[in-house]
Design goal:
688 residues; alpha+beta; Coagulation Factor XIII, Chain A, domain 2
Length: 688
């Protein structure tokens, strides 16, 4: 009688499998593979080798604390003659003496997570069990049968594999690309992402049900949306918008997700202070890309926060043209969320593809601060009844705005603006640093019949509101060189479109503003009581914005809100112009010294000139770049940087990965906050 099979060792072939499964950038210390695709392991037996027809081999895979076959978290399967497409299965790949190579297939609807793998070897009725090790299973955008399958390779590269990107900030007229290091394949990140899933309240309430639902990317993305903020749970980030960040990190100072996620884990899942919308979105993007769900960060300019769900944003001005913060409805200069790519079998046909997902805590959804996934197609068509949270996102991009002018006698006049909200919806282009405008995915062209029809369909039961034609009009123009530290002019341009002379009052006001619409102090004002407008004529009225006025009250967002109110004496009619402007920070110049080659030392030389009329103190450069740095590197500068003087620093880099990488730089000081810069660096492979 033949002796029993005795397993000496098991090689999980981490390096080869990671190359085949597009997980090589996660390292080869553990086996990380994708579902809907086979991977192989090599078994080394002592004594004798495997004999076909004599030995019977079976494998067990299990995930979660309470694996159950009926829940899809455990599977027992024989090593057979052929792989199955819809179930866990295994076949013998080849045999070399006492070494046996097995091919193992994970079905495309398998639960993602950390798995244990065991072998059962038997002859007749006797058998022995061997623990082979652990592996991590991820979603697979390369598998046509996976619900996150993405057809084009360049999109898979951008939305799953690329570890750096650009997030758009600024204002609708001055869109600022801000670099970000997502770093989804950096050390520890995949383990942190799985820990995040195991920390979510749904898992803590019912571990079996939660793990069983981890085959569904819509479920996973909804959990991530809730767990990136800490409002209901031990989530990653605490949000703050009041400019008081002394007990944490100013949201503008972050340059990547890796440091945030590592801090969350290091301090026992306590929330990291502080985040704002682009930080929440960027961390969600890191987690979702790491888990294998194609994800991109999206910015919506003039984004509405409709608190009473009537698809109307009410704004109030006093008789002096000053905006009043009397409504809970808000218009954010910009707001960031993410889009995730997946099929939606839980919905009627036609809603697969990009889904909006917003981890910034604004409103509760099913009792939890999360939002989405909302099919972008449903948002465009005004289909508010579908899952999840479509009315909220629809309002963010399509709400109407009513400005109410409050009169001294208590009466109110209104001006209606139907094309203010949801402008220049932006994301980074595939394979380049240019901006892709995706507004057309969310809404029909402003003012078109289709756009108004969709708005009417969105359960308003009211007539579409259209702006009335005015005899006079007003718009705001700006000058070049609106740089931090400088004085500059802005202009109210008034046009009389009638054949008669008009006499008007012009109120032109500037106030600092945070990106989420919270108003600050006044930094410029003009009140002209007698503005005469000739027939069919145009008049330009300048307003000087002085550095000495805005320097002390400009927030980290570097934004100023301009409001121009024109009141006709004869008719009492009022027309309104509103514009947000961005005060530009100085550029960071980045020079790379040395030959950009894998595992060869490079030096990044960083330079920033102080544009202000006073010295900068507490100056600090921070750099990060997946494949370029080991985490974040910081460089403090000693002494003040005088006006017109350059702040300089040098940071050593040792690139670990070849290819195209992005070095992200942040500069902080007492008077300049969150100044960003980046440089793309192409690293040559190490010579063989």
């Amino acid at each position: 009688m033949a002796e029993d099979l005795v397993l000496e060792s098991c090689d999980l072939e981490c390096e080869t499998n990671s190359q085949n499964h597009m997980t090589a950038d996660m390292g080869s210390q553990q086996l990380i593979v994708r579902r809907g695709q086979s991977f192989f392991i090599t078994l080394h037996f002592s004594g004798r080798g495997y004999e076909e027809g004599v030995d019977r081999l079976a494998l067990n895979v299990a995930t979660g604390p309470c694996p159950i076959e009926t829940s899809g978290t455990k599977s027992h399967f024989l090593v057979s003659d052929a792989l199955q497409e819809s179930a866990w299965s295994a076949v013998v790949d080849h045999q070399d003496g006492n070494a046996l190579s097995l091919l193992i297939y994970a079905p495309p609807d398998a639960r993602i997570g950390r798995y244990s793998l065991t072998l059962e070897a038997s002859m007749g009725y006797q058998g022995t069990s061997f623990r082979l090790g652990e592996f991590i299973l991820l979603f697979n955008p390369w598998s046509p049968d996976d619900s996150v399958f993405l057809e084009f390779d360049e999109q898979r590269t951008e939305y799953v594999l690329t570890q750096q990107g650009l997030i758009y900030q600024g204002s609708v007229k001055f869109m600022v690309p801000t670099p970000w290091n997502f770093g989804q394949f950096e050390d520890e990140i995949v383990d942190i992402c799985l820990q995040l899933l195991d920390t979510n309240p749904k898992f803590l309430r019912d571990q079996n049900r939660d793990c069983s639902r981890r085959s569904d990317p819509a479920y996973i993305s909804r959990v991530v949306s809730a767990m990136v903020n800490c409002n209901d749970d031990q989530g990653v980030l605490a949000g703050r918008w009041d400019n008081n960040y002394q007990d944490g990190v100013n949201p503008m100072s972050w340059i990547g997700s890796v440091d945030i996620l590592r801090r969350w884990r290091k301090y026992g899942c306590q929330p990291v202070r502080y985040g704002q919308c682009w930080v929440f979105a960027a961390v969600a993007c890191t987690v979702l890309r790491c888990l294998g769900i194609p994800t991109r960060v999206v910015t919506n300019y003039n984004s509405a926060h409709d608190t009473n769900s009537n698809l109307i944003i009410d704004r109030y001005l006093d008789e002096m043209g000053q905006l009043q913060q009397t409504s809970k409805d808000m218009i954010w200069n910009f707001h960031c969320w993410v889009e995730v790519w997946m099929t939606r079998p839980d919905l009627p046909p036609g809603y697969d593809g990009w889904q909006a997902l917003d981890p910034t805590p604004q409103e509760k959804s099913e009792g939890v601060y999360c939002c989405g996934p909302a099919p972008v197609k449903a948002i465009k068509e005004g289909e508010l009844a579908l899952k999840y949270d479509i009315p909220f996102v629809f309002a963010e991009v399509s709400a109407d705005v009513i400005y109410w002018l409050l009169q001294k006698d208590g009466s109110r006049r209104k001006t209606i603006h139907t094309s203010t909200i949801g402008k220049n919806i932006s994301t980074k282009s595939v394979g380049s640093d240019s901006r892709e405008d995706i507004t057309h995915n969310y809404k029909y062209p402003e003012g078109s019949d289709e756009e108004r029809e969709v708005f009417a369909k969105a359960e308003l039961q009211k007539q579409s509101l259209l702006e009335e034609e005015q005899g006079v009009s007003i718009k705001i123009k700006v000058s070049e060189g609106m740089n931090n530290g400088c004085d500059f002019d802005v202009y109210a341009v008034i046009c009389n479109q009638t054949a008669t002379e008009r006499l008007c009052r012009l109120l032109f006001c500037a106030r600092t503003v945070s990106y989420n619409g919270v108003l600050g102090p006044e930094c410029g004002k003009k009140d002209l009581l007698n503005v005469s407008l000739l027939p069919h004529a145009e008049k330009t009225v300048p307003l000087r914005i002085l550095y000495e006025k805005y320097s002390g009250c400009l927030t980290q967002d570097n934004m100023i809100k301009l409001v121009a109110l024109l009141i006709e004496y004869q008719t009492g009619d009022a027309v309104l112009g509103v514009r947000d402007i961005y005060v530009k920070n100085p550029d960071i110049k980045i020079r790379i010294l040395g030959e950009p080659q894998q595992k060869r030392k490079l030096v990044a030389e960083l330079t920033l000139m102080n544009p202000l009329s006073s010295p900068l103190t507490g100056c600090l450069f921070t750099v990060a770049g997946a494949g370029l740095t080991q985490g974040q590197a910081t460089q403090d500068l000693t002494g003040p940087i005088e006006p017109g003087e350059e702040a300089k620093a040098r940071v050593n880099l040792v690139p670990q990965q070849p290819g195209r990488h992005k070095l992200v730089v942040n500069f902080e000081s007492d008077k300049l906050k969150g100044v960003k810069g980046y440089r793309n660096v192409i690293i040559a492979p190490q010579p063989k």
